[in-house]
């Protein structure tokens, strides 16, 4: 009896040691995949691979495998995916097992997201020994790339983006919007005139003028009974203009037979383009303290009282108080009649480039500042204006760079504009604002 119990105990210990020493491999087919999201749901097949040459089926039935989401390395919401897999016995996997992952469709372009999945092998009950998983790919990183829908032509485009202020540093500031309609001349003898319409709202570069705006203060300090020092302190102020523009521009396009090319991707259209433009400008003028101070110190072989008397000539002096800081807003208007104008466009399946230049008569209703920029009045002034605009749009992403410069010849007042925006076909603009209105 004792012998029987001894061999039975020895068998159990050997079986337990054998089970504890057993290893297997349960992993994904790879450690990283890329998935492109679309407006519709995307189904991604995933492969689970298992290798267990030394483990019996009876042992595998005591364990289960599950796939968990590593939330610390995942930045997509749970509503953005669904994994069609529940806990399963290791014995049911075989050498390969297919599971399905659904990526929820999204109509709004988004940045790249990441979903991290990891495999967990565990015993069904506490009496079973833990198995060691030595698979190479126990984690799977799924990179979800945002889809990019190419523009459906360039005839009707709307733009939403931001202005850049390069004077105060390269940074994005405030909203930019525009709508452009580009109707090419039709083919045939009676269709040689088209038109270009642009409605826009932008912000010009900040203009700063700090010349001549300095406040000086002179102080005297005693060093000894017979010596002193004179300190001249200079504070600097500046006038700053910020101009927001809302405008409407229209040009007839009269085709000119220049820049002919038989290559479809290099076809450049060149037009004579007189124009009419109305611009409403909201200008904010601020008198600001630059918070910049300089000090000039001079040693004098005079006592403090003697130095003051020598500086003032015996007259009493008062220290000028700091000038008052203020901000004022003006409404201004401009009417431009472009007489000499050209319009050039290069458009294909990859890119759209448009350049427009114009020279002509301008009727400006400007706020004219007087008496050190403290008083002003609206005046109508006739002038000669010149302007140039350029639009560059990538067809796949819709990313658009736009630059503009406008100035006058008689009363110079330059306006520089640079914007970065995304172009939409008119039928897509509602989808862009959908998260805002819902």
Short key terms for the protein model shown above:
13-stranded antiparallel sheet, 438 residues, Lipocalin, 57% strand, Immunoglobulin-like, mainly beta
Protein described:
- By secondary structure, the chain is mainly β.
- Helices cover 9% and strands 57% of the residues.
- It has 5 helices and 23 strands.
- The longest helix is centred in the N-terminal third of the chain and has 20 residues, at 2-21.
- The protein is flat, with a radius of gyration of 38 Å.
CATH architecture verdict of the largest domain: Beta Barrel
Backbone CA Rg:
38 Å
Rough outline: flat
Global structural class? mainly beta
Beta-strand level of the residues, as a percent range?
A: over 45%
CATH class of the largest domain: Mainly Beta
Q: N-to-C SSE series?
A: HEEEHEEEEEEEEEEEEEEEHEEEEEHH
Measured as a percent range, the helix fraction is under 10%
Mean of all residue-level pLDDT scores: 81
How would a crystallographer describe the biggest sheet? Answer: 13 strands, antiparallel
């Amino acid at each position: 009896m004792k012998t029987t119990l001894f061999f039975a105990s020895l068998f159990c210990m050997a079986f337990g040691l054998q089970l504890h020493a057993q290893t297997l491999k349960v992993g994904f087919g790879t450690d990283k995949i890329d998935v492109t999201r679309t407006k519709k749901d995307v189904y991604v097949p995933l492969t689970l691979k298992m290798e267990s040459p030394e483990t019996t089926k009876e042992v595998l039935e005591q364990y289960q495998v599950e796939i968990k989401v590593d939330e610390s390395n995942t930045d997509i919401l749970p509503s953005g995916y669904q994994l069609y897999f529940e806990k399963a016995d290791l014995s049911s996997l075989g050498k390969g097992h297919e599971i399905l992952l659904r990526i929820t469709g999204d109509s709004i372009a988004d940045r790249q997201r990441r979903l991290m999945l990891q495999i967990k092998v565990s015993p069904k009950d506490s009496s079973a020994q833990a198995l060691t998983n030595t698979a190479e790919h126990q984690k799977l990183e799924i990179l979800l790339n945002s889809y990019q829908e190419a523009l459906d032509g360039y005839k009707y485009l709307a733009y939403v983006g931001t202005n850049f202020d390069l004077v105060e540093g390269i940074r994005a500031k405030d909203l930019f919007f525009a709508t452009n309609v580009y109707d090419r001349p039709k083919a045939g003898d009676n269709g040689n005139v088209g038109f270009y319409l642009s409605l826009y709202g932008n912000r010009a570069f900040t203009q700063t003028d700090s010349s001549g705006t300095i406040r000086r203060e002179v102080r005297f300090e005693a060093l000894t009974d017979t010596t002193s020092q004179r300190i001249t302190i200079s504070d600097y102020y500046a006038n700053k203009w910020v101009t927001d523009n809302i405008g409407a521009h229209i040009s007839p396009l009269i085709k000119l037979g220049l820049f002919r090319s038989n290559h479809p991707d290099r076809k450049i259209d060149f037009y004579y383009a007189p124009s009419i433009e109305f611009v409403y400008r909201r200008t904010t003028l601020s008198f600001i303290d630059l918070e910049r101070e300089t000090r000039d110190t001079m040693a004098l072989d005079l006592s403090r009282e003697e130095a003051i008397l020598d500086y003032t000539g015996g007259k009493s002096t008062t220290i000028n108080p700091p000038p008052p800081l203020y901000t004022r807003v003006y409404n201004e208007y401009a009417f431009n009649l472009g007489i000499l104008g050209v319009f050039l466009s290069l458009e294909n399946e990859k890119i759209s480039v448009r350049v427009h230049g114009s020279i002509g008569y301008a009727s400006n209703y400007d706020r004219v500042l007087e008496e050190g920029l403290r008083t002003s009045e609206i005046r109508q002034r006739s002038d000669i204006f010149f302007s140039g605009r350029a639009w560059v749009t990538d067809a796949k992403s819709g990313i658009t760079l736009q630059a503009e410069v406008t100035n006058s010849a008689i009363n110079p007042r330059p306006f520089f504009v640079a914007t970065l925006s995304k172009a939409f076909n008119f039928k897509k603009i509602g989808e862009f604002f959908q998260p805002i209105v819902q």
